[in-house]
Design the sequence.
């Protein structure tokens, strides 16, 4: 029942909490390994799946400090365990899961970047045709960009518009920055 707390069960629930966190992390890791490179699969909508997964991980990471604070509070109330487990130990216990969940988010962002690059690179091959279009012709010097520029930027613009509400702005900026850095190299 809510409001009922038994000191004798603290260690069991403490262990259960970390088992649940570890299982969630293991599941996310398995899903990311299974879906890596599967963007071309016709029956999978990985873009929306990754968006939901990224958001869920972010929500979970925001809940970790609350869980940590609750455990620290209950630990300070428990006389027998207070001497055995220090609150700094509890804080250290949450550092590794928090870091791994943030790494999972970065991995998801990397997958999204790879998808955007794959779509944009289809149009970048037109860049090689520019010298051929203007060599030994009497064409005027271009005054506006060629259509391939719009074709390269269109998937990025679509992603930014569709996901502005799904991701925090710094996440969208980070994804776009990484994508344009890699695209510029290409």
Sequence:
């Amino acid at each position: 029942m809510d409001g009922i707390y038994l000191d004798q069960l603290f260690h069991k629930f403490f262990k259960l909490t970390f088992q649940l966190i570890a299982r969630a992390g293991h599941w996310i890791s398995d899903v990311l390994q299974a879906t890596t490179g599967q963007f071309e699969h016709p029956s999978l909508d990985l873009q929306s799946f990754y968006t939901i997964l990224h958001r869920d991980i972010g929500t979970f990471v925001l809940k970790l400090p609350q869980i940590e604070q609750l455990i620290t509070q209950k630990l300070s109330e428990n006389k027998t365990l207070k001497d055995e487990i220090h609150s700094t130990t509890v804080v250290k216990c949450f550092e590794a899961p928090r870091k791994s969940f943030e790494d999972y988010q970065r991995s998801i962002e990397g997958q999204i970047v790879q998808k955007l690059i794959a779509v944009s690179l289809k149009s970048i091959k037109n860049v090689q045709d520019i010298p051929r279009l203007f060599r030994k012709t009497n064409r005027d010097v271009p005054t506006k960009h060629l259509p391939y520029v719009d074709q390269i930027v269109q998937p990025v613009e679509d992603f930014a518009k569709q996901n502005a509400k799904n991701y925090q702005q710094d996440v969208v900026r980070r994804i776009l920055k990484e994508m344009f850095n890699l695209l510029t190299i290409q």
User: Anything to note?
Assistant: The chain has a mean pLDDT of 81. The radius of gyration is 25 Å. Residues 7-185 form one domain.
